[in-house]
Amino acid sequence: EAICEAMSEEMRRDERVLLMGEEVAEYNGAYKVSQGMLAEFGAKRVIDTPISENTIVGMAAGASLAGKRGVAEIMFADFVTLALDQMMNQAAKFRYMSGGKAKCPIVIRVPYGAGMNMGAQHSQTMYNIVTSVPGLKCVMPTNPADAKGLLTAAIRDDDPVVFFEHKAMYGRKGEVPDGEYILPFGKAALLNEGNDVTIVAMGRMVLFAEKSVATLKGEGINCDLLDLRTTSPLDEDSILDSIEKTGRVVVVDESTPRCSLASDIAGFIASHGFSSLKAPVAQVTSPHAPVPFARELERAYVPSPDSISAAVRKVMNYK
């Protein structure tokens, strides 16, 4: 509802904004995110597309060069692989290759993540790949208010933004500001303050980290909890400021460990905040394996509040 509200408000405000993707119109979206939008804005602005991710992103990018502002929905984040040429080699490069004369104001919305028993081909994160591409901005809201504020900012941004919506969080409830609400990119949210350990998390992992923080508080361990909100741009200053205070850090990332966001942030901390560290940087990730289909295996596969707490205790006890 928050995502739908953001898109609808921007489409009312700016007639250049279009929504396009598989089943976004007559079916109200594969996850019912675009409910009612076809009836309000019509089939010329809420467009059902063929099952072709390359076409969806290419159409949005081409429309942007013609003065529109396309919002493209990819049904599963896993399928951005089918649109990577349009994303990486076209949309991300338009402004640079034209010397700033061309803009590509598109938003690519992608439901991502494990936890819904959808199997290895429909449960990946993919945000680590997007974050690595210069020219693409990467956004990951964790609550309804942030979803509205960040999506509004994304639609108004003149650069391509990939907006990650965790499938397991669509039902999460929360207060959402009425009217225009915009959150800036590159500014993490400090959800809890403590002096012992910094926990850096993104997306659904923030919810698990919040549970861990509450458990650890009962043990006398008080944590800073940073919700990154965006991974490109990354709020480097907030990370370093927190580590300077705590000296210990745990990075929580649903991705697999190799070339993950966790490893990237750990490397950044080692390069720029090493003198503040009292213990090695801990990384809590999924294992380097495809996402299991079985419910019990998938639950064990994804980082959990218990695994986060264990990592915090380990850095606290490091000597």
Describe it for me?
36% of the residues lie in helices and 16% in strands. The model has no long low-confidence stretch (mean pLDDT 97). The longest helix is centred in the first third of the chain and has 13 residues, at 53-65. The chain has helices at 2-13, 37-41, 53-65, 84-91, 94-97, 127-131, 144-156, 205-217, 236-246, 261-272, 295-301, 305-316; strands at residues 17-21, 46-48, 69-73, 107-112, 137-139, 161-166, 189-192, 197-201, 223-227, 230-232, 249-252, 282-284. It has a seven-stranded mixed sheet, sandwiched between helices. Strands 7-9-8-11-12 form a five-stranded mixed sheet, with helices on both faces.
The whole-number mean of residue pLDDT values reads 97
Coarse morphology:
globular
The fraction of residues in strands falls at 15-25%
Let me know the largest β-sheet: 7 strands, mixed
Radius of gyration: 20 Å
Helix-strand category: alpha/beta
Strand order, sheet with most strands: 2-1-3-4-6-5-10
DSSP helical segment count: 12
Helix share of residues? 25-40%
What layout of secondary structure does this protein have?
Elements: H1 2-13, E1 17-21, H2 37-41, E2 46-48, H3 53-65, E3 69-73, H4 84-91, H5 94-97, E4 107-112, H6 127-131, E5 137-139, H7 144-156, E6 161-166, E7 189-192, E8 197-201, H8 205-217, E9 223-227, E10 230-232, H9 236-246, E11 249-252, H10 261-272, E12 282-284, H11 295-301, H12 305-316
Parallel strand pairs: 1-2, 1-3, 3-4, 4-6, 5-6, 8-9, 8-11, 11-12
Antiparallel strand pairs: 5-10, 7-9
